[in-house]
């Protein structure tokens, strides 16, 4: 009862004076660091302490029509990985697949043409960046690829076949080797095990079961009135048209979902609640495995897992938006900050705002 009352009082405090102070601070950060639109939140497993969206959807058009709205979508970038991992957890609990299922148990017909370095890779290896699949984190890697024909999921399947037939990363002493492409390989396994495309699985889990809103790709690709991503062109922050020749189709499961802040908060709350021991859509033990099953990076989450400290985090950016999420399991609090730019200045501002939010929230705990 005391804990519930404490959360209520905390939420009330942030909705009044402290919330106004933080809004002023966040907007000053936004302006100083040339961030067109900024959204941020602090939350517990069952309440929202802070939630705000400020600024403008385009840097070069700032008026009532482009002013930030609460339901604006932000590109999650690599924070999409936690959602693909979440779907994997759903399929594992449904007994469609296991974490230790080997890739070639599902695609035996591809083994004869594959690189032997990949013979033993599992779903867990792929989702935790331990399969030694090349990273595909730069444009140069994509430019060297052959052209893949067909629908998005057909192109992705051909991309996966190409990946496992070509060179692996050399073995090294790193705990993990980050790979966007590894998530495409993992998604192929989830598709084969479920009989559904990754896109259909997203619709089934996020939309139909969890009632969360999302889009694939940049927000302004399906609605010109949604936030535009920004990058630097000719030393100037530039909004990117929806027609810009830039797509993440081949690595969509690694980094191409957009969500409104409100809906992403609900997803993070499910994770925090599960980490606090309360089963919901997934079992509590599944959430613990997603976040802490492996050292340093488990499934879609970087982690600190020590006797006196348990936290998980992830940043996501395809160069045009930025999303950062931090979950403090011990204190039952999580922080989200999203922006429609990803410049060095943007990141400086985001982490100054994060520091301020942590001080503001945790000083009251």
List keywords for this structure.
3-stranded antiparallel beta sheet; 6-stranded antiparallel beta sheet; 365 residues; Beta-lactamase; 13 helices; alpha+beta
Low-confidence stretches: none
**What order do the SSEs take from the amino end to the carboxyl end, as H and E?**
HHEEEHHHHHHHEEEHEHHEEEEH
Distance between the termini: 15 Å
Total number of helices: 13
The residue-averaged pLDDT reads 95
Report the sheet with the most strands, covering strand number, pairing sense and barrel closure: 6 strands, antiparallel
CATH domain fold name of the domain at 82-201: Beta-lactamase
**Broad CATH class of the domain at 82-201:** Alpha Beta
Strands in their spatial order, largest beta sheet:
2-1-11-10-9-8
Strand content: 15-25%
Query: Architecture of the domain at 82-201 in CATH?
Result: 3-Layer(aba) Sandwich
* CA-based shape: globular
SS-based class:
alpha+beta
| Rg | 20 Å
Can you identify the CATH superfamily of the domain at 82-201? DD-peptidase/beta-lactamase superfamily
Number of strands: 11
| Percent in helix | 25-40%
């Amino acid at each position: 009862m005391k804990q519930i009352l404490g959360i209520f009082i905390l939420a009330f405090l942030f909705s009044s004076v402290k919330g106004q102070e933080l809004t002023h601070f966040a907007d000053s950060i936004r302006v100083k660091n040339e961030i067109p639109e900024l959204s941020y939140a602090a939350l517990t497993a069952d309440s929202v302490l802070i939630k705000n969206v400020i600024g403008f959807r385009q840097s070069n058009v700032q008026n009532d029509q482009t002013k930030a709205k609460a339901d604006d979508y932000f590109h999650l970038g690599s924070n999409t990985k936690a959602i693909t991992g979440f779907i994997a957890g759903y399929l594992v609990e449904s007994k469609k697949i296991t974490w230790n299922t080997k890739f070639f148990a599902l695609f035996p017909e591809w083994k004869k043409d594959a690189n032997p370095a990949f013979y033993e890779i599992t779903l867990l290896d792929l989702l935790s960046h331990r399969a030694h699949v090349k990273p595909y984190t730069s444009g140069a890697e994509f430019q060297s690829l052959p052209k893949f024909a067909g629908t998005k999921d057909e192109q992705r399947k051909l991309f996966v076949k190409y990946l496992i037939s070509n060179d692996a990363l050399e073995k090294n002493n790193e705990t993990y080797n980050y790979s966007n492409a590894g998530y495409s390989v993992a998604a192929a396994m989830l598709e084969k095990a479920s009989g559904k495309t990754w896109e259909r699985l997203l619709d089934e889990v996020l939309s139909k079961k969890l009632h969360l809103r999302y889009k694939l790709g940049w927000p302004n690709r399906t609605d010109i009135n949604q936030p535009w991503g920004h990058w630097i062109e000719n030393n100037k922050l530039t909004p990117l048209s929806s027609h810009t020749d830039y797509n993440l189709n081949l690595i969509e499961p690694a980094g191409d979902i957009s969500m409104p802040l409100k809906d992403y908060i609900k997803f993070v709350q499910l994770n925090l609640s599960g980490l606090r021991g309360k089963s919901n859509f997934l079992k509590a033990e599944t959430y613990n495995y997603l976040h802490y099953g492996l050292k340093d990076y488990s499934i879609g989450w970087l982690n600190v897992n020590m006797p006196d400290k348990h936290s998980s985090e992830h940043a996501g950016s395809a160069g045009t938006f930025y999303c950062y999420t931090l979950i403090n399991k011990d204190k039952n609090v999580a922080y989200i900050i999203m922006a429609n730019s990803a410049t060095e200045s943007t990141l400086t501002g985001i982490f100054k705002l994060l520091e301020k939010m942590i001080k503001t929230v945790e000083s009251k705990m």
